[in-house]
């Protein structure tokens, strides 16, 4: 004889309870699923936000480095240009000062000065060669020619005036066979005085 199942209480009430339990279970699962999905979405958003922030920082850093590099290059270029302009100004003033110096000395005094320098140079070079050539600086061709006539040439030594000139503000270069060359241009003879004058010009022009 088969067993019988007896339902206690109202079937409708039992059905409602079962339906309510199922609904609560479903709602709980839906809530859990929504929470899990929300966390996944939030994490993805945070990860993307971090990447975006990192990218922005990287871009800002790169832009800053480029700007700093450009500014540094421009500063170096400007410093070089300023230094070149200053150097040109100093040399121009120095050249004018030397030309004025030449103008204040009489021709006779200047020729005597060149003659003394020629005697000194010939005395030094004649120890190594008996054939010497005097190459005058461009502005001093006639002055050197006159000075050479006043010089007593050592016996056995030949001194000729070159047909060419050499660049310089004045003076001459004495050349001997064998490659010896003695530089008596004014910028060399007066080197220490010129350097002192150059320092003074820089001090006056650019002191702060």
TrEMBL record:
One of its GO terms (molecular function) is proton-transporting ATPase activity, rotational mechanism. SUPFAM superfamilies: V-type ATPase subunit E-like. GO terms for cellular component: proton-transporting two-sector ATPase complex, catalytic domain. Keywords: ATP synthesis, Cell membrane, Coiled coil, Hydrogen ion transport, Ion transport, Membrane, Transport. The keyword Nucleotide-binding does not apply. Residues 42-73 form a coiled coil. GO terms for biological process: ATP biosynthetic process. InterPro entries: ATPase_E_C, ATPase_V1_Esu. Belongs to the V-ATPase E subunit family. This is V-ATPase subunit E. It comes from Pyrodictium delaneyi.
């Amino acid at each position: 004889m088969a067993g019988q199942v007896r339902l206690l209480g109202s079937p409708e009430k039992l059905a409602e309870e079962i339906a309510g339990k199922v609904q609560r279970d479903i709602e709980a699962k839906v809530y859990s699923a929504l929470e899990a999905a929300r966390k996944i979405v939030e994490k993805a958003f945070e990860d993307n936000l971090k990447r975006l922030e990192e990218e922005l920082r990287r871009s800002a850093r790169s832009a800053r480095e480029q700007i700093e590099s450009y500014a540094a290059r421009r500063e170096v270029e400007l410093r070089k240009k300023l230094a070149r302009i200053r150097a040109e100004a100093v040399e121009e003033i120095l050249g004018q000062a030397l030309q004025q110096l030449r103008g204040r000395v009489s021709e006779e005094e200047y020729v005597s000065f060149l003659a003394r320098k020629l005697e000194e140079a010939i005395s030094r070079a004649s120890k190594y060669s008996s054939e010497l050539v005097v190459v005058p600086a461009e502005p001093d061709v006639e002055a050197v020619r006159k000075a050479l006539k006043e010089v007593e040439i050592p016996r056995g030594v030949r001194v000729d005036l070159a047909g060419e000139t050499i660049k310089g503000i004045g003076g001459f270069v004495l050349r001997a066979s064998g490659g010896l060359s003695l530089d008596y241009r004014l910028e060399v003879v007066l080197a220490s005085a010129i350097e002192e004058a150059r320092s003074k010009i820089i001090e006056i022009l650019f002191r702060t």
